[in-house]
Write a structure and sequence with these properties.
alpha/beta; about 30% helix; ten-stranded mixed beta sheet
Length: about 200
């Protein structure tokens, strides 16, 4: 099912449909401030396993991230981090960044890699954040890839529906997306280090 949601005039009934889907072990594709992403409730092992199968990766090796509503949520799912890391996150979030942090015990076991880390996002997208806020906890997100080596990421929800409608439960059409992924920053030590340059530009503060 395709739901057309306008980011500047969000239909709350559609958001509720997404929430019902997520709470029922559903898999959703939704817009972020970078590319479209697969999403599920972080407490649904069943949905996370479905996404890993769609992406043809082993769940324990997948680089899935959590999309949170705000900074206050992040501390619940991560171990304490330095003041410098906090300043960087506060300055750049919401925004097109994924911060790699040490995971706390609140992170479900299936999402903790061998390094015990978790990717954290706060996307600057009204639809994604409305869904997370209404759900009451973070969602797991992972970029929707295209098999085409030239066009790596999808930007059109219509194309996504054509290719994935039989594999997911809901697709949220939030308009055309960017084609560049988030910038990934490793914050597991005292000083942040960019490990993948994407849409976000890390600024000196």
């Amino acid at each position: 099912m395709l739901l057309e949601v306008y980011p500047d005039n969000i239909n709350q009934k559609y958001i509720q449909k997404v929430i019902e889907c997520l709470k029922s072990d559903g898999v959703v594709i939704l817009p972020t401030d970078t590319v479209y992403a697969f999403a599920c409730d972080i407490h649904s092992n069943k949905a996370a396993e479905r996404i890993s199968k769609i992406k043809k990766v082993k769940l324990e090796k997948a680089n899935f991230s959590f999309a949170c509503y705000d900074l206050s949520t992040i501390s619940e799912y991560t171990k304490p981090f330095s003041r410098e890391v906090f300043r960087v996150m506060k300055h750049h979030l919401p925004g097109p960044f994924t911060f790699i942090l040490n995971a706390s015990s609140a992170v479900p076991t299936i999402f903790r890699s061998n390094k015990k880390t978790i990717g954290i996002r706060i996307p600057d997208n009204n639809i994604a954040r409305a869904i997370v806020k209404e759900l009451g906890n973070p969602i797991m997100v992972s970029s929707v890839h295209d098999e085409d080596e030239i066009k790596e990421y999808y930007s059109d929800a219509g194309e996504i529906e054509s290719d994935f409608s039989e594999q997911v439960d809901l697709i949220v059409d939030g308009g055309y997306s960017d084609i560049h992924p988030s910038t990934v920053i490793d914050c597991t030590s005292d000083s942040p280090v960019v490990i993948r340059q994407g849409k976000g530009k890390l600024e000196e503060i």
